[in-house]
Amino acid sequence: MxxxxxxxxxxxxxxxxxALTEAGYVVDKAFDGEEGHFLxxxxxxxxxxxxxxxxxxxxxxxxxxxxxxxxxxxxxLLTARDRWSDKVAGIDAGADDYVxxxxxxxxxxxRLRALIRRAAGHASxxxxxxxxxxxxxxxxxxxxxxxxxxxxxxxRLLSYLxxxxxxxxxxxxxxxxxxxxxxxxxxNTIEVFVGRLRKKMGMDLIETIRGMGYRIKSQDSxx
Length: 223
Ligand code: CA
Known about the structure:
Rossmann fold; Response regulator transcription factor; Sig_transdc_resp-reg_C-effctor; DNA-binding; transcription regulation; single chain; two-component regulatory system; alpha/beta
């Protein structure tokens, strides 16, 4: 999962990027509205954290422009404390949720998890597929209750496929959502990661759809 952070406060920006990276996301950052708008407009993100008070272009304008151009990723707004008018304006501009400053980073993480899950159609914090279980809260995956030891890349790949269960996900899409903008992207590595995941899971839940990509199919819960 790839997240965009737009926040001009350098300290806060760094804290957010660190916490999100720690939680297993790939993160791109911007420090003003123009740069943030550009990134959100041109790169595919699974969610964005957007401050309202930004230099060059304010957060609400950024959001309105994204929505006008049909950029539909979930957006979590950072608002000044007690500015209820900001919150109303933010929701009207197309925000999915907001957190008022000062906030605990855990709250931002929890709200983002929920937004990403809901955008993918999952209401609960655990996503399951037969014996495979993904806990979005702890960023852990288990097979038949046994924890999988995954690298951050492997986890992201598995998480992306599970959030998009039953969809065929192309390698290009995976590369775009697994690496940040500066990474030297090579879609061949995806194949390697899939191979390792299959081996670690000890089963073949990830289907290869020839010439198209990969898919994890939902399974009936154990009956
Ligand atoms: Ca600000």
